[in-house]
Here is the input.
Amino acid sequence: MMLEVKDIRKSFGKTEILKGIDFEMDQGEVLSIIGSSGSGKTTLLRCLNFLETPDAGRIAVNGETLFDGERPESAGAGELRRKRLHFGLVFQNFNLFPQYTALENVTLANLLLAKQQPDYKQNRRAITERIVAEAHELLRQMGLSDRESNYPHQLSGGQCQRVAIARALALKPDILCFDEPTSALDPELTGEVLRVIRGLAEQHMTMIIVTHEMAFARDVSSRVIFMDNGLVCEQGTPDQIFGHPREERTRQFLLPFIQR
Amino acid sequence: MTAEQWSIVFNALNIGFVQTLRLFFATLIGAIPLGLLIMFGRRSRFRPLSWLVQGLTWIIRGSPLMIQLLIIYYGPGLAFDWHPWGGGEAGRFSAAAAAFIINYAFYFAEIYRGGIASIPQGQEEAGLVLGMTRTQIFFRVKLLQMVKAIVPPMSNEVITLVKDTSLSRIIALQEVIWAGQKFLKGSNGIAANILPLLCTAVYYLVFNGLLTLLLGRLEKRLSYFK
Ligand SMILES: Nc1ncnc2c1ncn2[C@@H]1O[C@H](COP(=O)(O)OP(=O)(O)OP(=O)(O)O)[C@@H](O)[C@H]1O
Ligand SMILES: [Mg+2]
Here is the structure.
């Protein structure tokens, strides 16, 4: 089991947003999370990436417990950063760094991390060259070779999101999370981003995708979770969820998409 | 006035303007970093510190700089018979620099705060999920965006500062206005004349013109990103 999420709970003030989320994932799985607005999908991804601290529950990756609500030992900042790197997160609105080119956006974090390596001083040149070479390769995969030296404001939304995906991949996360990666894009630009994600799925990248693109979720995922009101309401294969939903809530949620 | 008398006048004004410039640069060098500290205090999660800074900001921005100059220069002596500034022009300069640095630092702190607030929360979060430390995020991600956001309001303050230095006239700092004013009553064998005082405006104009060009350039250099 690559990822185990057990009974994750999170409240903001008095409102409980996540009411005990359970799921598991194998290596190479693509998990889509669907559900109505406000059901807690973003909050769940933020908990996995340690942008929010869950109130209770357990998160383990490859058998290593990253978070345990029973033993909320105050992890040091360095420890927290190391744990975070198991996950990558692609944001709805990209959050690229505007003062850096596409290439620099992809290399920045790795160059900073490399400084902590013990052999950094001696092998500085080689390490830097390797990081830059990997970034070239990632941007090529994203179809952005000719855009490497552009700044974010010179790129279209779809291009920005592909840079953001390359930036997340550069850190080689075990699991890459997407929070509605296409919902800030004009309809004609969603295709290029979805194509890139599909390509990653074919390379067996382990991914969690929060999305409102039902056709895409049905097509690309190995498993689908329907979240409702802070709980996993139903999960199963795409065919089960979209073809034969068992829960009334799921059926109602999917009605508008099925009729189309 | 004769040409010779004009040369005496400009000599005096030049000496005064050097003092104006010294005060100007001392204020910038002191207030730019002090403002950063004040801004961190204002944003501190330790509430009492934030409240203290808010109170001080109200006092410093709400009262005339001229009065602050007087309090800083004469206050310690009047209240505690303590004379930290020493006598003479050097003492007056130190007191004036202290008053200007404190006053401008509070204005700068508010501008910095606006600059930081203008950076979307997503920038910090993007840095965090990429495993960057908060220090790295501040220096590598936020600082330049903040600088870009504050250049226009800082330019305004800097140009105001050039003119504000003349307030130090109140504690008799021998800056350019003081130098021009001497000639109002007649000085150096020249009969009373208002023209030297009026000429001081040219110094401010020329210097502010140069600053405007320089700051415009900086703004342009930062326009490569949005
Ligand atoms: N930091 C916060 N403080 C208070 N409430 C929050 C916070 N973050 C999220 N919420 C609330 O939690 C609920 C769930 O939000 P969340 O963003 O996880 O939903 P979502 O499923 O991602 O919705 P959407 O499809 O609209 O993106 C919402 O009602 C939201 O107002
Ligand atoms: Mg959301």
User: Anything to note?
Assistant: The CA atoms of residues 43 and 168 of chain A lie 19 Å apart. DSSP finds nine helices and ten strands in chain A. Chain A touches chain B at residues 49-51, 77, 81-82, 84-85, 87-89, 91, 93, 95-99, 108-109, 112-113, 151-153, 167-168, 171 (CB under 8 Å). The beta strands of chain A are 3-12, 15-25, 30-35, 56-61, 64-68, 87-90, 175-179, 207-210, 223-228, 231-236.
